[in-house]
């Protein structure tokens, strides 16, 4: 897994479940990118 992922939640009312869903979705997109960069 190689990449950068972040979630900015500044002054936006979001519950914990939504934040977790965003983070897990982003990590799943990075999980397999079709090649090995090593």
UniProtKB/TrEMBL annotation:
It comes from the Eukaryota. Residues 2-38 form the Glutamine amidotransferase type-2 domain. Gene3D superfamilies: Glutamine Phosphoribosylpyrophosphate, subunit 1, domain 1. InterPro entries: GATase_2_dom, Ntn_hydrolases_N. This is Glutamine amidotransferase type-2 domain-containing protein.
């Amino acid at each position: 897994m190689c990449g950068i992922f972040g979630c900015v939640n500044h002054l936006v009312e979001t519950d914990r479940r939504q934040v977790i869903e965003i983070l897990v979705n982003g990590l799943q997109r990075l999980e397999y990118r079709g090649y090995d960069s090593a």
